[in-house]
Amino acid sequence: MSVESVARDIKEMKIQGAVTIAIAAEEALEEFIKSCQAGSRDDFLSQLRAEGRKLAEARPSAIALPNAVRAFIEKVEAINLGMPDLKEAALLAGKELIADTKDSFNELIEKGSEVVRDGQLILIHCHSSTVTGLLKKAWDKGKRFKVICTETRPSKQGFLSAKELAEHEIPTTLVVDSAVASVMPGVDMAMVGADTVLKNGDVVNKIGTLGLALAAKEFGVPMYVATQRIKFDTEGKGVDIESRPAEEILEGAELPGVEVENLVFDITKKVYFRGIITEGGVRQKW
Ligand code: RUB
Prior knowledge:
With about 290 residues, the protein is α/β, with parallel strands linked by helices. The protein folds into 2 domains: about 5-110, translation initiation factor eif-2b, domain 1 (Four Helix Bundle (Hemerythrin (Met), subunit A), Up-down Bundle); about 115-285, Rossmann fold (3-Layer(aba) Sandwich), CATH 3.40.50.10470. It has helices at about 5-10, 20-35, 40-55, 65-75, 85-110, 130-140, 155-165, 180-185, 210-220, 245-250; strands at about 120-125, 145-150, 170-175, 190, 195, 205, 225, 265-270, 275-280, 280-285. Strands 3-2-1-4-7-9-10 form a 7-stranded mixed β-sheet, with helices on both faces. A 3-stranded antiparallel β-sheet has the order 5-6-8, with helices on one face. α3 runs antiparallel to α4. The chain is globular and about 65 Å long. About 40% of the residues are buried. The structure holds ribulose-1,5-diphosphate. Ribulose-1,5-diphosphate binds near residues 17, 18 and 206.
């Protein structure tokens, strides 16, 4: 797919979830390189940077996106070749990066699956391919547990999680977001993904994560975040918290005189998490 189509699909949430959008961006840059007709190294690099910018800004709260684009471009810039050899070498470098991103995902779900215990009731939020991947891996290893998915209004990505887990034959219950505090006393572990891990360790994730964390703390439920290192804000730039169109909440309803605020992400302080799960393993109590 072209950079334009991928950037549009990311903005419209047809491609969603931080790691999925990062991989989609890397693949779009690979496609761009295949079709690029630049005649000189400078022209090639400046076109690649311009395409990268279109992708990097598509979802402002997910730092994996600019991080993936930057990693791609830096890899290509480090190749000391002119055209046309640079194009071939850039394609190889891009393939390597895509493979690394996918490998880190697989390593994370392998290591993270060890956190899951037999008999647990696990509460998850939104659709994190990392969390669902980790749970499916634990299930495949023979662990038996149940999952509660929040609906995750307004875009209802919790439906995606519930469907994916149920298709894997994992016993799954869907609840509305406002039920989080009420179900929490029966939960053994809560787990979420991340869009960005800020330099101070706080976690940007889908709106509702903060409320879930507060309820987990109140009822003494350990909460984990599962995140690839590509989502770390190592430079400390921070991210904007994305707001999306009111229509996603209103769904056609008319409420004259009412201001609608569709905040999409929130920030949860690191102290709310029992541990962080990355491709490096599980770190309890950061
Ligand atoms: C998805 C979301 C996910 C993180 C992590 O939000 O908040 O929890 O992106 O997902 P949206 P993953 O649907 O708005 O993109 O683990 O797949 O990277």
